[in-house]
Amino acid sequence: MRPLHRSDLLSLEQYAEQRPAFRQRLLAHKRPRRVPLGEHAALYFEDRLTVQYQVQEMLRIERIFEPEAIEAELAAYNPLIPDGRNWKATLMLEFPDPEERRARLAELVGVERALWLRVEGFEPIHPIANEDLERSTAEKTSAVHFLRFELSAEMIAALKSGAGLRAGCDHPAMSPEVDVAEASRVALLADLA
């Protein structure tokens, strides 16, 4: 997928007019791109549309319209767009209760390195995590991690031929293993060259 450029973005005025429809389109688009990992974790797979929405929202919230500032936002968000040989996902550890969240994030140190995806017939793919900055300490992990899963040409070919996809985690405090739903597998295929 090609990166976003300023010419791909709506002006603040255009976005204000189109935001409700854009948001509805995005919500429908994102639904199959969410892969739940148990009750309190999910992978949200990013693509050009999800990133465009995030950029448009940042420009709207921060009232950014200067070309240099827009370019800075694009530079920050474009790395989240897959390049045809990988998937990029946000891991969200979702604990609504603050006390439970605090305790569980302390138990889940290193969870981002224990995740995996497995294309049927291949070894698991472990992600490259948090390339922008470290999000775990010895005492706790973050509730949000940015991940990149690199796929081989053979894995991509197998997926395009109908191979199944599983997701899981080998962390002692969180060890789900799930079949990725067919709708999600199909949505993720669109990210691959």
- Helical content, roughly? 25-40%
Q: How many distinct helices?
A: 7
Shape: globular
Q: How far apart are the first and last residues' alpha carbons, in Å?
A: 8 Å
Rg result = 18 Å
- How can the largest sheet be summarized? 5 strands, antiparallel
Number of strands: 8
Structural class, judged by helices and strands?
alpha+beta
The run of helices and strands is HEEHHEHHEEEHEEH
Tell me the strand percentage band: 15-25%
Describe the structure.
The protein has helices at residues 12-30, 48-62, 67-77, 98-107, 111-114, 153-160, 182-189, and strands at residues 34-36, 41-45, 86-93, 115-119, 128-129, 144-150, 165-169, 177-179. Strands 1-2-3-6-5 form a five-stranded antiparallel sheet, with no helix packed on it. A three-stranded antiparallel sheet has the order 4-7-8. The chain contains seven helices and eight strands; from the N terminus they run αββααβααβββαββα. A hairpin with a 4-residue loop joins strand 1 (34-36) and strand 2 (41-45). Helix 2 (48-62) packs antiparallel against helix 3 (67-77). Helices cover 39% and strands 20% of the residues.
Summarize the structure.
The protein has 193 residues and is of the alpha+beta class.
Features:
193 residues; alpha+beta; five-stranded antiparallel β-sheet; three-stranded antiparallel β-sheet; globular
Q: Topology, please?
A:
Blueprint: H1 12-30, E1 34-36, E2 41-45, H2 48-62, H3 67-77, E3 86-93, H4 98-107, H5 111-114, E4 115-119, E5 128-129, E6 144-150, H6 153-160, E7 165-169, E8 177-179, H7 182-189
Antiparallel strand pairs: 1-2, 2-3, 3-6, 4-7, 5-6, 7-8
Helix pairs in contact: 1-2, 2-3
